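Trying the structure run again after the queue cleared.
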Amino acid sequence: MKSDLSIAIKQLVAERNLPKEVILEAIEAALIAAYKKTGRGSGQAISAELDPISGKARVFVEKEVVEEVKDPRTQISLAEALEIDEKAKVEDRIRIDVTPRDFGRIAAQTAKQVILQRIREAERDHLYRTYAEQQGEIVNATVQSVGTDITLNLGKAEAILPKEERMPTDRYRANQRLRVYILDVKKGNKGPRITVSRRHPLMLRRLLELEVPEIFSGAVEIKAIAREAGFRSKVAVAS
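Done. Tokens:
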């Protein structure tokens, strides 16, 4: 029978297009951190394994097999090692299961947190890619707030319209709808940081491509654009 963890990982892989190995590695790294927070594992080589089917987590410490133990945190005697692995020999490195009895609860909480974090990261990456692909294009926007910069709602993300990218004749108010040119898209901690323009010369080119079928089809080619945003524009074309 599949565990809730197994179902959650499968859904995350399918819905967010994340490799299963990436999710498991992230959970296992978080399990190691959770184990160390209990005060154990200081100065030791700790690893963790998670069975995605059963949801069972195990923690291991790696030690070197020696004849005489000088540091019990990192070394194990040959006699003790042979009780774990009958093929063990001096200078081998052996993994010892040190999973605490109450670690199942900790593992479940940790896995849940990592999965939620991965979902948020995947959503941020998806939003970034979506708008990065639209850089240099015109999109519809709604004015969200008016201040030193104008904050716009693009539907799934916010954008900033800086003062230097506004047209001097424009007047902005909350809930106003307008078209903007996506000037720049950068990754941010809370999502993409999008800068838009209302006066960029290429905005006029994109508008003409949208509104004039001959330009869109390539029958008429734009050779040059001279624009005084909000006042006048000159367009040189060839057919």
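Residues 103-132 form the longest helix (30 residues). Worth checking whether this holds up in the mutant runs.
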